[in-house]
Model the fold of this input.
Amino acid sequence: MSNGRYTENELNALVEDFKRDGFCVLRAHFSKDKIREWREAFMPLLNVHIEREGHKQNRGSMRYYVTLPFEAPFADTSVYEDADILHVCENIVGRDMVMCQLASDTPLKGSDYQEIHSDAMPLFPETNFETPTFQLAVNFPLVDVTEANGPFEVARATHLLPKAEGLKLIETGAAKLESIMLAAGDVMIRDVRGLHRGTPNKTDEPRPMCVIGYSRRWLYRPEVNIRIPRAMYETLSERGRQLLRFNPVVASLDEVENEEVYQAFAF
Ligand SMILES: O=C(O)CCC(=O)C(=O)O
Done:
C-alpha cells in the first residue's frame, strides 16, 4: 500500500493506463531540486564515460548509456523506494520484484534516430507469444525534454505484441510513434518491450534520462546490475534489502570494473 501522493484509485488508474498502453506517466513527481542535484552529480560521470569509452558509442552516434554508482546522490531511497512508483510496479511485476538496474541514457548533439526496438529479447523466441509484463523501466529525465533535445518516442500498446507485429502496425500507420514530453521531475513507468526509439538531440546540452529497472524476481539480465558497497548495504532499509537482494555487494566501488557491459541494447 502506497503512502505517497496518490490515492488508491489514482494508482489503480495508473496501473490501468500501463496495462492498456504499455506505459504510464506520473507528472511532477520528483522535486526540481532533487533533479538538479542528480544532474550536477551526473554530468562529470558522463564526461568520464565519454573520455574513457565514448568511442564505443554504446547506444548509437553521440548517445551514451552510463550506469550510475550506488552511492549519494543516486542511492536515494526517496527515489528507488518511492511509495507510488513501487505501488504501481508491484502491481505489474509482483510484490517480490527486484531492482536490477540504475543507469542513464543520454543523447548529445550529433545523435540520430535509433532503430525502433524493444529493450528485451523475447522470453520464448521459438514461439510467436509474448507474456504479461516481466521487466519495467522507470524513466525520468534530468532536464526538461523538448522537441529539440531528443524526446523518447514510443508506440502505444505494442508491449504485448511480438516485435514483427508491432513493427507492422507502425509501418501501416495503425500504431504511431509518439514523443513523450517529460519535464524534469516527471516519471514514466514502461514495459521495456513497448516499441520505441531515441531521437536526435539538436541542442548543445545533453539530455540525460535515468532508468531504474524493476523486474520479476526470476528475470536475469547479465548486462545490468547494481554493485552495492558493503558500507551502503549496512544502511539499507528492509525494503531496500529485499529489492536489491540479487545484486552483488562489493567492498568498495573503487575496486570494481567500471566498463559498461550493456552494449547490445536493441532487440
Ligand atoms: O534515451 C532515449 O530516448 C531512448 C534510448 C533507448 O531507447 C535505448 O538506448 O535503448
